[in-house]
Amino acid sequence: MSRLVKVLIVANVLLLVWNVAGSSYAQRPPDTDVDGVPFLKVNVNPTNVPPMVNINPNQFVPRVEITRMPEIRVTASGCDNRSNFQTGIGRTITGPLMVTYLNLPAQTTATLNGRDGTSSVNLDSAGQVTTAIFLESGQTLEFNASVMYSGCRPV
């Protein structure tokens, strides 16, 4: 090999080493948390002033009212006799019945019919009502869709 070729090879190797070592601006992978999930560090408040939120922009003084409701005494009779326990699926529940479980589909309208008239309420989310609802004799609870319910008829 000629001396010129050897010099060119050495020059190319030096140029390659200088390019790789001198200009290593490679992008690093993002940091990861303890579970290995990658995340980027972002400063959402680049100033030393903490963010302020005015929760009362019109300077209204909050007013609290307490309404005393009359005490209602209901004797819980439970289902001592299993023949009084009732469960079913339907659009209407008739009283007398102490409803202890009610499973509602989404967007349900419930209407209570009784001696004093009717009242309706829209229930937006699906779920279970696990508090007791006491239906007296002559009262019905109607729904716009089938519901699953269970409860106890009084003796």
How would you describe what is shown here?
The chain has a domain at 83-152: Jelly Rolls (Sandwich). The chain has one helix and nine strands; from the N terminus they run H-E-E-E-E-E-E-E-E-E. It is mainly β and 155 residues long. It has one helix at residues 3-22; strands spanning 31-32, 38-39, 85-94, 97-104, 108-114, 117-123, 127-129, 133-135, 140-152. The mean pLDDT is 81. Strands 3, 4, 5, 6, 7, 8 and 9 form a seven-stranded antiparallel beta sheet that branches. A two-stranded antiparallel sheet has the order 1-2.
Could you name the key traits of this structure?
single chain; 155 residues; mainly beta; 1 helix
How would the blueprint of this fold be written?
Blueprint: H1 3-22, E1 31-32, E2 38-39, E3 85-94, E4 97-104, E5 108-114, E6 117-123, E7 127-129, E8 133-135, E9 140-152
Antiparallel strand pairs: 1-2, 3-9, 4-7, 4-8, 4-9, 5-6, 5-9
In short:
The protein is mainly beta and 155 residues long. It is built from one helix and nine strands.
Using only C-alpha atoms, the radius of gyration works out to: 37 Å
What separation lies between the terminal Cα atoms? 114 Å
CATH class descriptor of the domain at 83-152: Mainly Beta
Q: What share of residues is helical?
A: 10-25%
- Work out the strand percent: 35-45%
Write the CATH homologous superfamily of the domain at 83-152: Jelly Rolls
Give me the CATH architecture of the domain at 83-152, please.
Sandwich
Unreliable stretches (pLDDT < 50, length at least 5) are none
Number of strands: 9
